[in-house]
Every structure is written in structure tokens, then in C-alpha cells.
Task: structure prediction
Amino acid sequence: MREFAFQLQSGHKNAYDVHQKIWDVVRMIAGDGAKFLFRAIGDVAKVRIVSPVRINGGREAVMPVDGERYKFCVLVNPMRRVGHGSRREPVSSVDAAREITVCLLSNGGFDVEQATGEFVSGPFFGKPGMKDFVIRSFNVWGVVRVRDEKKAREAIATGIGRSRRFGYGMIDLEKAQ
Result:
């Protein structure tokens, strides 16, 4: 897995346009059909590409090891089920976002030792032919310990949550002291 960070042209307010640019960059780096995660905050984008073919450039993603502690950071767009149906709505508080993120990380093979977060101004999303909407975003960070290396590596490769294709759920890890 390789990671790339790059500067976006300033002024991109529409998340759909940003996503299209990121997908173009991934196709240029790894070809059509490459699996990837991405995150764009402000004018900076980060992309993690999973490819069976060696990709030049970027840096190798941090891979979790059983029992090790890591600082983590993840941009999330958590949703809660409303009533008994399948309808979902975005959560409105940092506490709710943190609670859902802790659950997702736990399912992904991590024990969360500490987590906090903040509301990040959500991007406007305007896809041609669709009604425009604003995505509610939270940045959640803290410390995790790897409980299940296999699950944790899968979570690093595929991300967490349901909004991964919109630039959410990519877990960044850094070895904790």
C-alpha cells in the first residue's frame, strides 16, 4: 500500500469536483480499477492506493502489528439509523461521532485507549443531476492498541464506515511513544 499527499487547486468548494480530480490522479498513478482510500481537507488531499502491482513514489503505509500502540486520526461522516427502517441521518455531536468511530475501530481489530474529536466544516457536494447537500464531517483522533492484526490491516486497506467513497474512513496511524 502506497500513500500520496498532494495540493489541490484552491477554490474547490464542491466535494464532487474534488473527488473527480482525486480519481483522475489515482488512475494516472495506478491505472483503472485500483482500490484506494482518500481524504481531502481544505486544499490538501491524501490518497492510499492498494495495488497488486508495485507503484513508484509516495510512501509505504504504516501497517499495524499485534499488541503495538499507535496514534490514529480518521475523518468520519457518521450516521445513525432512524426508527426501525433503513433510513439514516448524520449525527450532530462530537460525542456521538467519537462513539461511533470507537465502535468501528473496535470492529476493525483495534482497542481504543483514548479518542477525541472535532467538527470539521462539511463540504458542499453537488453532483450534476442531483440535489446539492452538505456533508457533516468530524475529525477523530487518539490512541489505539492493535488487538487483531489481520482485522486491523484490513481496516487500514479498506477504511471504516459507510462513506469511504466520499473521502471518509481512511485511518492514519503513527507509532505511539
Notes: The two ends are 24 Å apart (CA to CA). The helical segments are 15-30, 94-107, 149-158.
